[in-house]
Amino acid sequence: MSWGFLRDLLSGVNKYSTGIGRIWVAVVFIFRLLVYIAAAENIWKYEHDEFECNIKQPGCENVCFDHFFPVSHIRLWALQLIMVSTPSLLVVFHVAYRENREKRHNQKLYKSPGKIDGGLLCTYLISLVLKTGFEIVFLVLFYKLYNGFKVPRLVKCDIKPCPNTVDCYISKPTEKMIFLYFLVATSCLCIVLNLSELSYLIFKYSMKCYLKRYIEKCQ
């Protein structure tokens, strides 16, 4: 997969984001996307070939690997990156809709098509909720699939066609666990940033509406 599309998407959304939103884009791009491409992808590259069991029973090793790693960490991380970035498309599409509407009517309908107000504010808030929801869902998924955020050195397997309980060894468990902790930490940071931006926007526009009503009342 070419990650250029995701990079271009994040760069496009950055134009319409608040200050906190730009920090989120930087975290996703530098601490998640670049780390994934530069380092993490190579660590899990040959995880199946390097998964070893102390038995040569045909099919046993494959079954044990599938049981303990139903989905590859790195593929799940890639899916998480795509899913948490996709809601940003809603904002891009809404801005494109505003610009297209101005062209059709051949007049200025908005102060700035990219300004977060009115319908675009609702779209932006929905995108923040979706991004936060996806982050939480994937963290829970990671925890449930792998029984926590640890990568064991040794796993015991007794699934057929294994004739008895066999010991299976995972390659580079410490290195994988470090990257898994890094993944969890960056996900939590992104959740905090999304919730902070959500709170900031709601507070900002609530105060704006309150002040507007107050001024109208005074007049």
From TrEMBL:
SMART domains: CNX (SM00037), Connexin_CCC (SM01089)
One Pfam family recorded for the sequence: Connexin
One GO molecular-function entry: gap junction channel activity
UniProt cross-references to InterPro entries, sorted A to Z: Connexin, Connexin_CCC, Connexin_CS, Connexin_N, Connexin_N_sf
Cellular component annotations (GO), alphabetically ordered: connexin complex
TM ranges: 21-39, 77-97, 118-143, 178-203
Localisation: Cell junction, Gap junction; Cell membrane
Main location: other
Membrane topology: Multi-pass membrane protein
Keyword Transferase: no
Residue stretches making up the Connexin cysteine-rich domain: 134-201
Domain Connexin N-terminal, chain residue ranges per copy: 42-75
Keywords for this protein: Cell junction, Cell membrane, Gap junction, Membrane, Transmembrane, Transmembrane helix
Biological processes, Gene Ontology terms: cell-cell signaling
UniProt family annotation: Belongs to the connexin family.
Function: One gap junction consists of a cluster of closely packed pairs of transmembrane channels, the connexons, through which materials of low MW diffuse from one cell to a neighboring cell.
Subunit structure, interactors included: A connexon is composed of a hexamer of connexins.
Protein name: Gap junction protein
Organism listed in the record: Todus mexicanus (Puerto Rican tody)
Upper classification of the organism: Eukaryota, Metazoa, Chordata, Craniata, Vertebrata
